[in-house]
Design brief:
heterodimer, A: about 475 residues, alpha/beta, five-stranded parallel beta sheet, 13 helices, 27 strands, B: about 675 residues, seven-stranded mixed beta sheet, six-stranded mixed beta sheet, 22 helices, 30 strands, globular
Chain lengths: ~475, ~675
C-alpha cells in the first residue's frame, strides 16, 4: 500500500510539531508521505522564546525548531515561502501562488493566527499593514524589527496589557527602554486576573520601570511622537508595539466553505466539516479550548499524528486544561481555572492572601476538595504545586494555608532551641541510630565529653554532622 | 574459628561502594582513616563483624531432598550440580544453563565467573544484579564520554566544590560518611522525597516521580535562555549540542513546571547557581537511573553538565554514585551479558580474539551476547529459556522487579544453585545451596565508586565447611572437564590473569599488582603498565571517544512507563534505609540493625493515609498491577500527597518489588524500579 499523502498547511509551532509527531510514529515514511507548506521563509521556530529574544537573553538563531537538514533527514517535502491560494476540496488539492498545486489524501490546516490591530487613527496604513514605527509582536521578523527600532533608552509604548504585551514590556524594560503599557480596561490580563492580582502586578512591574495607562485607549498615533490617548494624555514613543489580541487565520477555510466560527470548527478527531481536512492550533476552534497558546496546539498535534499514522485510531482530543503563565524575568505569575469566584459563593472555598509591597498575591478556589481556580503571584513553588494539583485533579491538602503559601512557611517541625526541649526518642546521630536518651544514659555512665560519648554510643562517628548537637547535650547535662 | 587475640587487619567495609576504611580485630570493627570515609563509619559498617561468627552462617552444602534442604558433602553437591548441568546442556543446548552474578563480588570472582560461563559452560546466558543498579549510568556515561567510570575523579575533590547538584541520591542514608565531602558546598538535591540528604540542601527540588528528564531539560533550557552556556567549551570539547538543544528548546521552565511540579524559578536558580560556581559537580544515583528511560535521564543530566563546561575540568565534573561494594569493578570484567573483561564488548572481534588468547581457547568458541538480567530471569524455565541457574552473590527473589513472577520462574527450573554466606531468600528456594566465604575471610580486590582499586586481604579464618567462590568455580569447572589450572583458586593468581585480559581495554588493570596495592599505592584505573601512576582524574585533556570530544545526547522526556489512573491513583517509589543493605539478606540478620528497622513501612502523606482510612503505625496493603505488599504506615508531612515510598530490603509478603514495573530501558535494560502506579488500602487483618 502506498503511503497516505498528508499535506500540512502552515509551518509554525503547530505544523512543525505535527510533522515531528508523525515522523516519530512513522520514521521511515512507510505510512505517511508528508508535505509541509510554510509561508515564512524561515525554518519553523519556537514562538514561546520570542520574549527572551526581545529581552536580549537569547539570540534569534537559537529559537529554531528544526535545522536545515531536518526535511531531508526525515523525508519531508518542505516548501518554505510557499503561499497557498486555495483549497480545491473536489479534486483534493492545494493551489499555490506560483500556479502549482499539491494533491492530498488528508489536509491539515495549521495556519495559525494574525495579530489584531485596534482601530486607532494612524496605526495602520491604507492596506491594513502596521504604519512606520508600529510593530505587532508576533513573528521572529517582528522581534528583529522591535530590536532594531527600540534603541536602548528610547521610549516605547505597548498597546495591550495581556500576557504577550506584558512579556514584551518586561523584555523591553529589561533592555533599558522607557515602557508605557496602554490597556483599555482597568485591570491587566482581566480574563486571567482579578482586580487584586492586577494591582499587585501593576506595582511589581512598576518597580521594574514600566508605566501603565489603564482604562483608556489610544486615539491617535503620531509617528515619531507617540500616542494620544482617549483621556487626552500623551504617551511619548519612538516605537509602538501592538499586542492587542489575535484572530484565527481562516481565509482559505472560508473560501473552501468549511464551517468557520471564530476559527475553523473541529471535533474531537480534529476534523473540520470536511472529513479529509483537519485543523489544529490557533486557526482551529475546538469546544472548550482557548486558542492562542502552544499547549493545546501540541496536544492536538499528538492526537492527530496518532490518527493520521494509524498508531492509535481511538485517539481523541478532549480539550486542554489551560494555565496562564507569565514568562517575564523577576515576575512569577500563574493563573488557572475560575479566577473571578468571590467568597460569596457558598459552594466554593476561596482563600486569598495579598502582600502588594513584596509583590505577592495568592488566591485559591477549591470545590469538592479539588483546585477549581487560582492566581499566584510571587510565590513560585506554591504556583507549581497548585498547578499540578489542578492538572492532575488531585485532592487539595487539608493544610490549605501551607499549600497557598508554599515555601514561605517554615518547613517541618520547629527545631528545639535547647537540648532540654528535645524528646528522649529524638534521633541525634542518624548514621548510628543514637537517640538523645541513649546519650543521656551514656553520660550518666561516665562519658561526659564528645570523644567519650562517641566511644560509648558511636554518635558522631558516621558523617560527623551531629558533633555540635552531641556537644550541646554534653554541655547541657554538665550544667545541670 | 578460634578466639585467640589477633592483630588488627586493615580492611574495608563489606557493604557499599564507598568502601570505608576500617580495621578488624577478630570480629571487632574499628573505623580507620581512608580518603573516602575520613575515619567515619555508619551503623552498618560498625556492625559488619556480626555476620562473621553469626549462627546464621551456612557451613555445609545443602541439597533439597523430598522438598527439604539437607546437609551434604561438597563432593556430593558439586557432583550432583555438574551431572545435572551436563545432562541439561546435552538435552537442551549450552544456553540451557544460566549464571547470575552480583555487584558485591570481588573483581576476581566477577572475572572468573564470566570466564566460567563462557568457557566451562559455553553459555551466553550470564548477567548480574548490577544491571538493576548501574546499567543506566554506565550506558549514558559510555555514550557521552566514551567510557564509564562512575566518578572520574577522587571523591575528595568534592571538598573544593562551591555547588553540588545531587540527583536521585540519598547518601545521608546510603553512604553516610560520603556527606563529609559535601560540607563546603552549596548543595542542591533533586528527589521526590524530602530525604535526610534533602534536609542538608540549600535547595530541594521535588519532582513528580519519573519526570527527571523533563527537569534536566528545563534547567538546560534556563542555562541557554539566561545566557549561562559555556560556548567555548561546547565548541572546543563537545559535539552534538545543537540537536540536544533543539529538544531542550521546547522545554521552557514553565512547561517543565507543569510536568514536574518544580517551579520555573527554581529551575532558573539551579542554572544560575551552577553557572556562577567556580567549581561545580553534577552527581546522579539510582533515583534518576532506575527508570525505563533511565539512560536518557542520565544523559539529560550529563547534557546539563556539558552545557556548563563541567566534565573534564579539574575541580568540576559529572559523576554517578555507584551503589554496591564492587559495583564499579563488577561491571568491568565480564559478568555482564554483552561484555568481556576490561570493559570490552563481546561482539567486538578484536576483543574476542584478545580475551580468547588469554584464556587459551578459540575466539569462535566464545558465545555471543546473552539476555539482560530481567529478561534472563523472565525466561527461566520457559520454552527456549534456561533450565538451570547458578546464582552467586545475589538475592533475586527480593531484588528483581515483579518478584512474585520471578519466584514462579525460579520454581520452573530443573536446577537452581545458590552460593551465599547465609540462607538468603533465594537460597531458601534452591535445589543446592553452597556456603561461601565473605569479605574478611578471603583475599580479593574491589573497585570503589571513584575507580580506585582496593586490596581486601584475608583477615580471619573462614568457618569450617565453607569454600571461597573461586574454589566453587574451580571445583565445578574440573567436574565439567576443564583442564587443571584454567580456573585458579588463588585470588592473586586470578588477578594476574585479569590484568592480562584487561590489557588494552577501557578498564585497563594491567599495571595494577597485589604488590603495588600492598605497598599502599592509590591506583585508579586505567593503569596500563606497572610504571604508570594510575589515573585519578580522567578526561582533563580529552574524552574517550575517537575524536576526543564528549557527546551531547539528543534525548527527550517520555515520562513513567505506567501512569496513575482511577484504579491505581498513587505513585510508589522505592529506596533504602540507613540500617539495611540491598535485599537485607545480611543486615536483617544483624540484630543491632534489625532492631532499628525490623519491618517494611510505607511513607505516606497524612492526608493520603486518612483518605485510605489509615493511621500512623497501622499495617497497610500497597497494591499494583503486579501484586501487593504489606507495610506499616509512616505518616510523613513532607511527602507529596500523590507519592508513597517503600524500602526494598524486606522479604516474603513485605517485598517492595512485588509492586515494581519490569518495563525495561531500551538501551541499558534497566527496569523501572523507581515509579509505578499503586493504591493504598487497609490491611484485611
Amino acid at each position: 500500500m502506498s503511503p497516505r499523502r498528508v499535506v500540512i498547511l502552515g509551518y509554525g509551532m503547530a505544523g512543525a510539531r505535527l510533522a515531528d509527531e508523525i515522523r516519530r510514529r512513522d520514521p521511515a515514511g512507510e505510512r505517511v508521505s508528508l508535505t509541509v507548506l510554510g509561508e515564512e521563509s524561515h525554518l519553523a521556530y519556537n514562538r514561546v522564546l520570542l520574549s527572551a529574544v526581545v529581552a536580549g537573553t537569547m539570540r534569534p538563531d537559537s529559537v529554531g525548531l528544526h535545522d536545515k537538514a531536518w526535511a531531508e533527514r526525515t523525508g519531508v517535502d518542505l516548501r518554505t515561502g510557499a503561499c497557498a491560494t486555495a483549497i480545491d476540496r473536489g479534486s483534493r488539492r492545494v493551489e499555490l501562488a506560483d500556479g502549482s498545486f499539491v494533491d492530498y489524501d488528508a489536509l491539515v490546516l495549521a495556519t495559525g493566527s494574525r495579530p489584531w490591530l485596534p482601530p486607532t487613527e494612524g496605526l495602520t496604513t491604507e492596506n491594513g499593514e502596521p504604519a512606520a514605527g508600529v510593530v505587532a509582536f508576533r513573528t521572529l521578523d517582528d522581534c528583529e524589527r522591535i530590536l532594531a527600532a527600540a534603541k536602548i533608552g528610547a521610549p516605547v509604548a505597548v498597546i495591550g496589557g495581556g500576557l504577550l504585551g506584558l512579556e514584551a514590556a518586561r523584555g523591553l524594560a529589561g533592555r533599558g527602554n522607557i515602557v508605557t503599557v496602554v490597556h483599555p480596561v482597568e485591570s491587566l490580563m482581566e480574563r486571567q486576573l482579578d482586580p487584586g492580582a492586577s494591582s499587585v502586578l501593576v506595582r511589581t512591574l512598576g518597580k521594574l520601570g514600566i508605566d501603565f495607562r489603564l482604562g483608556t485607549t489610544a486615539a491617535r498615533y503620531l509617528p515619531g511622537d507617540g500616542l494620544k490617548l482617549d483621556d487626552g494624555s500623551h504617551v511619548p514613543a519612538d516605537l509602538v508595539v501592538v499586542s492587542a489580541g489575535v484572530r484565527a487565520e481562516t481565509k482559505l477555510a472560508i473560501a473552501a466553505r468549511l464551517t468557520v466560527d471564530r476559527g475553523v470548527v473541529i471535533d474531537d478527531s480534529l476534523r473540520t466539516s470536511d472529513g479529509r481536512i483537519h485543523a489544529i492550533g490557533d486557526c482551529a476552534q475546538h469546544p472548550g479550548t482557548v486558542s492562542g497558546l502552544v499547549q493545546p496546539a501540541w496536544e492536538q498535534a499528538g492526537v492527530l499524528a496518532d490518527l493520521l499514522t494509524g498508531s492509535n485510531a481511538a485517539a481523541r482530543y478532549r480539550g486542554t486544561s489551560v494555565t496562564t503563565r507569565l514568562k517575564a524575568r523577576d515576575v512569577d505569575l500563574a493563573a488557572l481555572g475560575e479566577v473571578h469566584t468571590g467568597s460569596g459563593d457558598p459552594a466554593a472555598e476561596v482563600l486569598s492572601f495579598a502582600d502588594a509591597s513584596r509583590g505577592r498575591y495568592a488566591k485559591l478556589v477549591v470545590r469538592n476538595d479539588k483546585v477549581a481556580g487560582a492566581i499566584v503571584i510571587g510565590l513560585p513553588d506554591a504556583a507549581a504545586t497548585i498547578t499540578q494539583l489542578y492538572d492532575r485533579s488531585g485532592h487539595v491538602p487539608s493544610d490549605r494555608l501551607a499549600l497557598l503559601l508554599g515555601r514561605a512557611l517554615p518547613a517541618g517541625a520547629p527545631t528545639a532551641s535547647s537540648p532540654a526541649d528535645l524528646p528522649g526518642t529524638a534521633l541525634v546521630c542518624r548514621c548510628n541510630s543514637v537517640s538523645k536518651s541513649r546519650l543521656v544514659e551514656a553520660w550518666k555512665g561516665g562519658a561526659t565529653d564528645v570523644p567519650e560519648l562517641a566511644l560509648a554510643t558511636r554518635a558522631t562517628t558516621g558523617c560527623g554532622g551531629c558533633a555540635d548537637a552531641v556537644r550541646g547535650i554534653a554541655d547541657w547535662l554538665g550544667a545541670q | 574459628m578460634t578466639a585467640e587475640p589477633r592483630t588488627a587487619v586493615e580492611t574495608h567495609c563489606p557493604y557499599c561502594a564507598l568502601q570505608c576504611g576500617m580495621s578488624l580485630r577478630g570480629t571487632e570493627v574499628a573505623p580507620r582513616r581512608f580518603p573516602t570515609n575520613a575515619g567515619g563509619l555508619c551503623q552498618k559498617g560498625w556492625t559488619s563483624g556480626a555476620l562473621l561468627d553469626s549462627p546464621a552462617r551456612l557451613t555445609s552444602p545443602l541439597l533439597r531432598v523430598d522438598g527439604e534442604l539437607r546437609p551434604a558433602s561438597w563432593a556430593d553437591a558439586l557432583d550432583l550440580i555438574a551431572n545435572k548441568l551436563t545432562a541439561i546442556q546435552a538435552a537442551d543446548g549450552l544456553d540451557a544453563v544460566a549464571v547470575f552474578g552480583g555487584g558485591g563480588l570481588t573483581n576476581e570472582k566477577a572475572y572468573l565467573l564470566g570466564k566460567f560461563a563462557r568457557v566451562a559452560l559455553g553459555t551466553s546466558q550470564i548477567d548480574y544484579n548490577g544491571r538493576f543498579c548501574m546499567s543506566s549510568a554506565a550506558a549514558a556515561g559510555n555514550r557521552a564520554f566514551g567510557l564509564d567510570r562512575g566518578m572520574p575523579f577522587p571523591v575528595t575533590d568534592l571538598a573544593e566544590a562551591d555547588v553540588v547538584l545531587l540527583v536521585g541520591a540519598n547518601p545521608a542514608e546510603t553512604m553516610p560518611p560520603f556527606t563529609q565531602h559535601l560540607r563546603g558546598a552549596d548543595l542542591i538535591v533533586v528527589d521526590p522525597r524530602r530525604t535526610p540528604t534533602a534536609e542538608l540542601a540549600s535547595l530541594h527540588l521535588a519532582p513528580s516521580p519519573g519526570t527527571d528528564l523533563a527537569l534536566a531539560l528545563g534547567i538546560l533550557h534556563a542555562v541557554v535562555a539566561d545566557g549561562h552556556l559555556d560556548q567555548s567549551y561546547v565548541d572546543d570539547r563537545t559535539s552534538g549540542f545543537s540537536d540536544a538543544w533543539r529538544i531542550a528548546a521546547a522545554w521552557w521552565p514553565e512547561r517543565v513546571e507543569r510536568i514536574t511540579g518544580v517551579c520555573a524559578a527554581d529551575q532558573r536558580r539551579v542554572a544560575a547557581k551552577l553557572a556562577s560556581a567556580r567549581n561545580a559537580y553534577v552527581l546522579t544515583a539510582r533515583g534518576t537511573e532506575q527508570h525505563a528511560s533511565g539512560a536518557d535521564m542520565v544523559s539529560g543530566w550529563i547534557n546539563l553538565a556539558l552545557s556548563l563546561g563541567l566534565p573534564g575540568r579539574k575541580g568540576s565534573g559529572f559523576g554517578c554514585l555507584t551503589g554496591q561494594g564492587n559495583g564499579q569493578g563488577g561491571r568491568e570484567h565480564g559478568q555482564k551479558a554483552d561484555q568481556l573483561p576490561g570493559y570490552r564488548k563481546i561482539d567486538d572481534p578484536a576483543a574476542r580474539a584478545h580475551v580468547a588468547g588469554v584464556w587459551g581457547v578459540a575466539p569462535e568458541s566464545l558465545p555471543g551476547p546473552g539476555r539482560s538480567a530481567y529478561e534472563l530471569l523472565d525466561a527461566l524455565g520457559t520454552g527456549n529459556g534456561p533450565k538451570a541457574l547458578l546464582v552467586f552473590g545475589s538475592n533475586v527473589v527480593v531484588s528483581a522487579p515483579r518478584s512474585s513472577h520471578i519466584a514462579d520462574r525460579l520454581a520452573a527450573l530443573d536446577l537452581l544453585v545458590v552460593a551465599d554466606l547465609v540462607l538468603s531468600d533465594t537460597a531458601a528456594l534452591a535445589d543446592v545451596v553452597l556456603p561461601v566465604t565473605q569479605w574478611a575471610e578471603e583475599d580479593g580486590t574491589m573497585t570503589n565508586l571513584e575507580g580506585r582499586v582496593l586490596l581486601r586481604k584475608r583477615a580471619i579464618e573462614p568457618p569450617d565447611g565453607v569454600w571461597t567462590d573461586l574454589e566453587v568455580i574451580a571445583g565445578l569447572a574440573a567436574r565439567l572437564g576443564q583442564p587443571a589450572g584454567r580456573f585458579p583458586i588463588d585470588a592473586e593468581t586470578v588477578f594476574t590473569e585479569l590484568r592480562a585480559a584487561s590489557r588494552g581495554g577501557l578498564a585497563d588493570y594491567s599495571g595494577i599488582s597485589y604488590d603495588r596495592l600492598r605497598s599502599g599505592e592509590a591506583l585508579f584505573w586505567p593503569v596500563p603498565d606497572v610504571e604508570h601512576p594510575g589515573t585519578p582524574r580522567m578526561f582533563l585533556d580529552s574524552f574517550a571517544h575517537a575524536d576526543g570530544r564528549a557527546r551531547f545526547a539528543a534525548v527527550d522526556h517520555t515520562g513513567p512507563a505506567e501512569l496513575p489512573d482511577a484504579e491505581f491513583p498513587l505513585q510508589a517509589t522505592t529506596g533504602r534505609v540507613l540500617q539495611h543493605y540491598q535485599s537485607g539478606a545480611q543486615t536483617r540478620l544483624v540484630t543491632e540493625l534489625n532492631d532499628v528497622v525490623p519491618e517494611a513501612f510505607v511513607e505516606v502523606h497524612p492526608d493520603t493515609a486518612e483518605r485510605a482510612g489509615l493511621v500512623d503505625g497501622e499495617w497497610a496493603v500497597v497494591a499494583s498491577r503486579r501484586g501487593e505488599t504489606s507495610a506499616r504506615v509512616r505518616c510523613v508531612t513532607s511527602m507529596r500527597p500523590d507519592v508513597v515510598f517503600l524500602p526494598f530490603h524486606f522479604a516474603g509478603a513485605q517485598r517492595a518489588n512485588l509492586l515494581t514495573n519490569p518495563a525495561l530501558d531500551p538501551i541499558s535494560r534497566m527496569p523501572e524500579f523507581k515509579v509505578c502506579a499503586v493504591r493504598l488500602v487497609r490491611s484485611p487483618v
